[in-house]
Amino acid sequence: MNNLVSVIVSIYNNEKNLRDCIISIISQTYRDLEIILIDDGSTDGSGKICDDLVLTSSKMKIVHRMHSGIGDSRNIGLDMATGKYVTFVNGSDIIKNDMIENLYKMMSNYPIDMAMCSCYDNNSNINNSNTVITLSPEDAIRQLLIGKSIGNTVCGKLFKKELFNSVKFSNDNADIVVKLIELSKKIGFVNVSAYECNDIETYSSSSLINRDIRTMKLYPNLEIYCQYDIIKNLQNEFYNSFCNNIPLINADNMYKMFMQIVKDKEEKLSPFLNYNRKAHLYLLADDYSTYKRICPVLPELNFND
């Protein structure tokens, strides 16, 4: 029986953390691994670190290629992968030594197609629980949209490789996790912080909004969660622009979208918003010009809320 897990590591100028990243994978308590290193045209010492470490383990393969982005790197890794299961690690990140074993046990013990743990960074409040929760695709997407447990990244997750038969990455693939959830019958989640993010994946606000609009069409009963996520991403854009003097492209249409959602759904949105986000929402909805002027002295927004 094939229980091999393919670990696809996307690398681009990660010299500072790369050795620790790869050693954290080699040191996994789950031993049935193949480790696929994709060096995406690094211009620092990342390539040499990979070449040196590949010599220490027969589990590792490496590809050096011209730089074309993380999406292409992951697609190449998938083409090379021979495991029944696949997980993704960014070259700047570190995984706990039992992460893959715990995710594999979830896949073995529950009728699920993907298993997830929590990702964290230096600013995260870690609150671990070993309770495994199984979710329907709809429930998993709801959790993704409200951002309380499931992160919008393929990292910290173990997938049946067959899910990728009809899914490919792009370099701004904000809806890739939604697509994979939709293809799954059940999803397993455990709130254990086992994946340390040192370089958070970011997506453009337009791609995130397009993801939410697509999700609303597929799941009309998730409309309020999608609209909350749209509001949150628009708030982040306005806040970042006004505080850092960054011009906003298409600001008028963004503000119209913001106001329409607030007008139609203010009462339903309110329970999802913390104090700071409510203050920003009401001030921005009352007067765009005033908000723009006073925004830099308001309480800071946590973009990960």
For the structure shown, list the relevant keywords.
305 residues, alpha/beta, Spore Coat Polysaccharide Biosynthesis Protein SpsA, Chain A, nine-stranded mixed sheet, 11 helices, 9 strands, 44% helix, globular
Number of helices: 11
Domain count: the total is 2
Number of strands: 9
What is the helix/strand order?
EHEHEHEEHEEHEHEHHHHH
Based on CA inertia axes, which overall geometry fits?
A: globular
Portion in beta strands: 15-25%
How far is it from the N-terminal to the C-terminal residue, by CA? 42 Å
Instruction: Note the main sheet.
Output: 9 strands, mixed
- Unreliably modeled segments: none
Considering DSSP H and I runs of 4 or more, what fraction of the residues is helical?
Answer: 40-55%
How would you characterize the overall build of this protein?
The protein has 305 residues and is α/β, with parallel strands linked by helices. It has two domains: 5-196, Spore Coat Polysaccharide Biosynthesis Protein SpsA, Chain A (Alpha-Beta Complex); 205-297, no CATH class. 44% of the residues lie in helices and 18% in strands. The protein has eleven helices and nine strands. The protein has helices at residues 15-26, 46-54, 70-80, 99-109, 137-146, 176-183, 205-218, 223-244, 251-269, 275-286, 288-294; strands at 5-11, 33-40, 60-65, 85-90, 94-95, 114-120, 132-135, 157-160, 187-196. Strands 1, 2, 3, 4, 5, 6, 7, 8 and 9 form a nine-stranded mixed β-sheet that branches. Helix 1 runs parallel beside helix 2, helix 5 runs antiparallel to helix 6 (176-183) and helix 10 crosses helix 11. 38% of the residues are buried. The mean pLDDT is 94.
